[in-house]
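Hey, resending since the last one bounced:
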Amino acid sequence: GLLDGESLAKKNIHIPTASSKQQRKDWIAFLVDVETRFARQMRDFLKNDLGVKSMVIDSQIDWGGLSGYAREAIMDYADVHAYWQHPSFPGGGWSHTNWTIDNSSMVNAWGQGESGTLDKYATQRLVDKPFSVSEYDHAAPSEYNAETMPLFAAIAATQDWDAIYSFEYGPVTFEKDQNRIGQFFDHGSHPAKISFYPAAAILFREAALQTIESAGTLALPDKAYLQYDRSKEAWEKAQADISPYAVLGRRMGMRMTDNQGVAQYKLTQAAQQQAGVPVVHNHAGGSVFTVSSPKASVIVGQIGGHQSTAGAMTIQSPEFEKNFGALTLNTMDDKPIGQSKRALLTAIAQGRNQDMVWNKAHNSISNKWGKGPTQVLGIPGKVTIACSNLSKVYALDQTGKRTHEVNAQHSNGQLTFDISAANKTVWYELTAD
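The structure tokens again:
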């Protein structure tokens, strides 16, 4: 309660460092009210007084925990930022020499039942508002960066997100020669990220992967922030399964209501089992993420020494460095793979600079980024595509032009060819002629 001498009239009431449950609720309600009124005033000023036509938000919807949902509910859409294994700085601040990353794969984390950034943010979407992720990246120099764009685009497409942004194209290093990876987040000079942009655009923007029909929706009660600090707590109290396997297999989101009581979870199953739902497979060497549709196939993970299949595409790969890679197959004529006459295969294991020097723990290179031009570690293996028309394969250069034809065989409705570093490409064009 009040200390001696404190009163509203004197305007000297302290902010409690410990409180009863009701005091805490009053304090949170006060903060939310002030913040929401400010956000509404700013929105109205922009929209009504200045005549701004563009969509307006205040900030990331999860900033402030569930109280942020009250603030952003009056905005035009909802937005979050997400980074898989953002650099940590043991010495504090932001250092270009004293930093670490975990240097591991999100796919392997999912395979072990651990949450990643993409499944986490799937549960934070509001189902009745457009949803964007306006910053996303997997920090360089991770040796698993090839998963960045295929996973981002695949999850966004299947979860029914509305806009996605990588952070960032760059470069921000202002180097004279922009032919190397210069810092954590540059995409423009990172071949394992930028090379998947064409495939990612087709997967997400052109809806080559369909939205999952089964849905898991959490109905939040009125003033949910007074019961739950963060959305994860609300999901768990509602006894919803938000393990990676469950989240990847259904379209997730929350709905704000005027209902009293507690958060309620509802699972709506599709009328029949839907093909093309993301799946994580575990085998002795690790985990593999797959998702497919009639027009696309995505395979990401520990593919070395293993055979992996996603829809019409199969890769049989021998063991290689890290055994980790990513492949996407997209048709370029908007036809199913089986009937397509032109398709693009993107295949990458790693992107890295020359003379990049890791520490003993393999979780930092300090400022020893090495030199350009960047190198790409290719995926070795035999690719098989189930198709009727595709019969020839060409390696493409960095501008998308053909360099040479790759030996391929087509028989019994299957196109088979080898991919390897010898082809010196990340892009393979598959055609009918």
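The chain has a mean pLDDT of 95.

Sorry for the duplicate.
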